[in-house]
Amino acid sequence: MTTDGTYAGLTGRGREVALTDPNSIKNTSVRPHSIETGVRPWAAERQRAGSYSNVAVERAAASCESPSTRSR
C-alpha cells in the first residue's frame, strides 16, 4: 500500500482508495463544523441555557412529563 508510510508513497489499491478513485477518502470526506470552526454546537446551546447540564436529557425528561406532573 505504501513504500514509506506517507501519502506520497501510496501505491496500487492504497493510492486508489485514499486519493484517486472518485469515491476515495480524499474526494468524499467532509470536515465536521466543530473542527473547521473550533466551536462545538452543543456548548453554545448550553451557554444560552445558562447551564452546563445535559440539555438533551433535560429535554427528554420534559417531553415525558404529563401536564399533571409538571411543576406549577
Query: Could you say how many structural domains there are in total?
Result: 2
| Shape verdict | elongated
DSSP, total strands: 0
Proportion of residues in extended strands: under 5%
Task: Describe the protein.
- The radius of gyration is 23 Å and the shape is elongated.
- It contains five helices and no strands.
- The chain has two domains: 1-30, no CATH class; 34-66, no CATH class.
- The chain has 72 residues and is an all-alpha fold.
Question: What's the short version?
Answer:
Residues 51-72 are annotated as: Disordered. By secondary structure, the chain is mainly α.
Identify the notable features of this structure and list them briefly:
72 residues, mainly alpha, 5 helices, 51% helix, 0% strand, elongated
Topology:
Blueprint: H1 12-20, H2 25-28, H3 33-37, H4 41-49, H5 55-64
